[in-house]
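Figure caption, in words: inputs first, then the predicted bound structure.
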Amino acid sequence: MNDVFKRALPVLQKLTTAGFEAYFVGGSVRDYLLNRTISDVDIATSAFPEEVKTIFSSTFDTGIAHGTVTVRENGECYEVTTFRTEGTYEDFRRPSEVTFIRSLEEDLLRRDFTMNAIAMDEKFQLHDPFSGRISIQNKEIKAVGKAQERFHEDALRMMRAIRFLSQLDFHLEKETEAALQSQIELLQHTSVERITVEWVKMIKGPAVKRAMDLLLKVEMENFLPGLKGKASALKEFASWDWEKRTTENAIWLGLVTTVQPSNVTAFLKAWKLPNKTIQLVGKTYQYALNKKQVWSAEELYHAGVDVFSLVNEINVIQYGENQQETLNRAYQALPIHSKKDLAITGADLLKWSNEQAGPWLKETLEKIERAVILEEIDNEKNQIRRWLGYHEE
Ligand code: ATP
Ligand code: MG
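Bound structure (adenosine-5'-triphosphate present):
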């Protein structure tokens, strides 16, 4: 038995000792059957949230409205979710209300794909009412129940199907693919935040090229932020060697350099990305467009480590060319790394010149900064003073 499950076993045991049912469910069971690294262990139980909270000494109400209580056990956190059905779906979105139930099978029935609807109990017995194991053997992504209805309930499942294709290198079962093709436009009702999560997982998967082929075949791009009519750019984007990626920012920089939206900030905002990402990718975009291979001292100085490293990452992914060490060395060799490193300040200039502060001050500082970066002068007080034409003290 896998160590991750062994560590989590006391959580199941405490629940069953208290008279409830409890199982490992979802991605962890699927990944275990696939011999993949297990990320997080999700637990489903017949105990209602308030009951879960009386059984464990340390709990957090993370998603209590949806039945999820986070439980701390042996220094690790586990999400324990009450069996539930999702009632009625409105607007093709995940329902806001859920009903707690006591039946495992009904809980598995609301799950998206057969491979994700397998439960494992404390004796490591599998409960697999929808033949998820057979789907896994056939490397097949198959909706639980009627695909058409399941995608209609929650359109995000179509995007999840494609990200699982990429992540697991599976294919879509026939009826599931047909349902995807026939109602892809429902995706427009899904919240962008959920789409973005799945998009990132799709790009991180080993079969991203095949996933993109299917995405373009069903014309899903028309319902993704800023990607309407961008099929050929996306094909190019997916052809890069994404396995060489190290940061998530590279996904967004790669996307804007291939799609070239008229307003990069607005494009990234439409994906609801964090401001930090928008700012960094926005600043890096101009440098990346030039596909810089040779950086001048001034460019390195103004770009900074984060920017030139991100451009380099894109060059690695797109062309297999890695210049990181050369760039680091050139950057380290710069005489200064910010205005603060200058040997003089605005106060020195005021004293030397006997003039009032004004725009000239900033201009002069920038002139000095540039001369120092280009090594026309040393970053040394007296030399700068002489260079400006002021008498020495
Ligand atoms: P990953 O390894 O990427 O986390 P996962 O299968 O665990 O994959 P999650 O998004 O963490 O995916 O969801 C956990 C489980 O919840 C899924 O395995 C599935 O059973 C169920 N699930 C998640 N999203 C949906 C959805 N939109 N519709 C139905 N069931 C879902
Ligand atoms: Mg998961």
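Residues 26-27, 39-40 surround magnesium ion (ligand 2) (CB under 6 Å).
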